[in-house]
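Example 5.3 — Type 4 pilus biogenesis operon protein
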Amino acid sequence: MKQTRGMTLLEVLTALAVVSVFIALAVGGMQSRIGGQRESMATRELWSGALRARQLAISTNQPVRIVVENNVELPDGTRRTVARWEQLKCGSDLANPDEWSMDECPSTSCVDKTCRTTPDCCSSTGQDIVIPDSMSATDINNLCFLPGSGRPVLNKMDCMQGQLGQAALVAAAAPKDHQIQFRFTSGRPKSVLMVEPLTGLSSVMDCDSVAATTTDVTRKDSRLANACTAP
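Solution (predicted structure tokens):
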């Protein structure tokens, strides 16, 4: 009767090493896919938040801005970078936000405060959008939609307080095509949030899309391509 030969210790260790490599590759690929999904979700949620902020600014006649805050404690106890929209109150009396003049919108006492630190400054706020560690969304910070018109201004935490009636200043503060970029350290090409300066309507576009990279002039989006090549 032929004797069955067992595996040596070296063969067992070699097999375990090979299995470990395959497991590591599988886990790495899964983590990469999950990370990419989180980046895509955050990008789309920021776009949705901008659309919602514009809608509220028009319907409520109050300025609504997007804020990005670091080291915010979440319900699960972790601290992350988050973004959300804030509907700012107007007037000198925060208890009566419906009574205000153009020079008092938003309220002077709230122009340099976020509603996380001073909740009384806001009529309402959006849900926190968690920004993945591999993503930077700082460019959208302080994107503000003006009351009534929904016109956008960028880098204005005060939402043009005291300047709402000055059309030239409002136009100059409108975001340019390249100014709101979402960048990723994962190797993913950046995305651009393009906001129309008159209407405030926005669209999010990926810089690896056909519209940005094609050489076919009939399919190329020149505005997007130029925005993607900006630093």
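Remark. The CA atoms of residues 88 and 163 lie 16 Å apart.
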